[in-house]
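Hey,

The postdoc asked me to send both predictions to you directly instead of through the lab channel. I've kept everything plain text so nothing gets mangled by the mail client. Protein one:
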Amino acid sequence: MLEPELPKAKATIAYVMEKEEDIISNALYPQVAPKFLEERMAKKLKVDVDLAKASSQYYPV
């Protein structure tokens, strides 16, 4: 019997999830969906994702 995958997919992308469809995207495309969702969020917030990940304490303005 297969275990439910949607709760795991939701937990993986919870920090960048905007819509319910994002969970399905992550479940279907787990290799590319998180990066896509991060980039979508970064574009919306006008934040450099790589720079934000590199700095553990501060994000330069």
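Protein two:
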Amino acid sequence: MSNTIRVKPWSDDQGDFVIINEADFDPKFHELLDAAPATKPAAPASTPAPVDTGDKTALEVLALADGNFMSFKSAAKKLLGDKTPSTKPEIIAALEELATTPE
């Protein structure tokens, strides 16, 4: 069983921290959050968990391009559907076209 650590998020959609395997820690990319155990605090029972409604515009999704690729691709797929390209540059081009196409 590998140990996990908490690092600062590198994208706005990742919450307060990200849990990674200790062996995957790269000081050039990750910033150690603290030495606390890697457990997320439970949300209060009366507060429902936030739900991503997927109502982002093409420009809002483009703003995610410099963050986590899989989060970016997932958000893009909600707008582009089955026509979502597989590479980041192609996704960016498709989103730019969508953002500049009049409705």
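Summary for protein two, as requested: Residues 6 and 36 are 8 Å apart (CA to CA).

Thanks,
C.
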